[in-house]
């Protein structure tokens, strides 16, 4: 944040020097004033639903008679998150969204929110002695990524290869058992797949990890052994089916034929 600021300010100075050489000195002075008043750095924080966050003003000058933290959501609605008054030493959270999850340290001005929801996203500002401070605290609360489940798809005409599919919109990282990152291919309509060739080692495995910057989840590993078992399972099921068919259809057929022979014999007589 600090870096970005000073970058911007440097750029600002450069632009002014280039574009308005005549008023250079005056404008540089304004810029310098701007830099000194902006010395407190703003904060941008990303969190996952259920997380906790704390914001603390860089400095507060005593004596402090009241503190109010305000929250502005992306539609511009402003509500009081928490208030403290030195006279009666009462903390209050008038808004339902902040009840039971908001704490304030009246000495440092630090606000702490627990059990964050997406609705806590927005801009937080602090009033000390009814005067709004310069510093801005921006919070983005994002949903946690789900724990992914890998789908297995056989490849037609190639029994030594399968596709492993991770069908999610979040960024995906594939890994094999040596921890190596594998490059996936785009899967339609969403997610990625990798093509896995049997190596003959049943302990080799593959995982898919989802991450959205605030939370990550990794799938259960899919072992080569499971993929082969899958194949064997298919063979076993097929063979059983054939046997079931034989047991179901041969006896009636046998009976039918015996019946047939008997009838033919009697008609011959
Ligand atoms: C902002 O807050 C208002 C009042 O609670 C609410 O009606 C509105 O939907 C909120 N906007 C967002 C984007 O959450
Ligand atoms: C993991 O992938 C890398 C790169 O493709 C490969 O060199 C390595 O042998 C793989 N390890 C296993 C256990 O499959």
TrEMBL record:
Residues 41-131 form the Natural killer cell receptor 2B4 immunoglobulin domain. It is found in: Membrane. The keyword Transcription regulation does not apply. Gene3D superfamilies: Immunoglobulins. It comes from the Eukaryota. Keywords: Glycoprotein, Membrane, Signal, Transmembrane, Transmembrane helix. The chain crosses the membrane at residues 231-250. Its main location: membrane. The keyword Transmembrane applies. It holds the Pfam family Receptor_2B4. GO terms for cellular component: membrane. This is Natural killer cell receptor 2B4 immunoglobulin domain-containing protein. It comes from Onychostoma macrolepis.
């Amino acid at each position: 944040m600090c870096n970005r600021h000073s970058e911007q300010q440097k750029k600002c100075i450069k632009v002014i020097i280039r574009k308005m050489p005549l008023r250079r000195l005056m404008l540089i002075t304004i810029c310098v004033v701007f830099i000194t008043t902006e010395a407190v750095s703003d904060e941008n924080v990303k969190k996952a639903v259920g997380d906790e966050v704390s914001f603390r003003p860089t400095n507060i000058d005593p004596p402090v008679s009241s503190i109010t933290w305000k929250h502005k959501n992306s539609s511009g609605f402003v509500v009081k998150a928490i208030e403290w008054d030195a006279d009666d030493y009462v903390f209050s959270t008038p808004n339902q969204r902040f009840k039971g999850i908001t704490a304030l340290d009246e000495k440092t001005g630090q606000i702490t929110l627990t059990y964050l929801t997406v609705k806590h996203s927005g801009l937080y500002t602090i009033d000390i002695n009814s005067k709004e401070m310069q510093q801005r605290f921006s919070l983005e609360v994002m949903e946690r990524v789900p724990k992914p489940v890998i789908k297995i798809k056989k490849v037609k005409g190639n029994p030594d290869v399968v596709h492993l599919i991770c069908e999610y919109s979040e960024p995906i990282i594939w890994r094999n058992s040596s921890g190596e990152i594998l490059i996936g291919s785009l899967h339609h309509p969403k997610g990625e797949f990798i093509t896995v060739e049997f190596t003959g080692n049943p302990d080799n495995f593959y995982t898919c990890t989802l991450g959205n910057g605030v939370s990550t989840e990794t799938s259960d590993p899919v072992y080569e052994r499971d993929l082969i078992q899958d194949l064997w399972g298919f063979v076993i099921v097929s063979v059983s089916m054939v046997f079931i068919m034989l047991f179901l259809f041969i006896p009636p057929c046998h009976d039918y034929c015996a019946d047939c022979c008997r009838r033919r014999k009697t008609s011959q007589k």
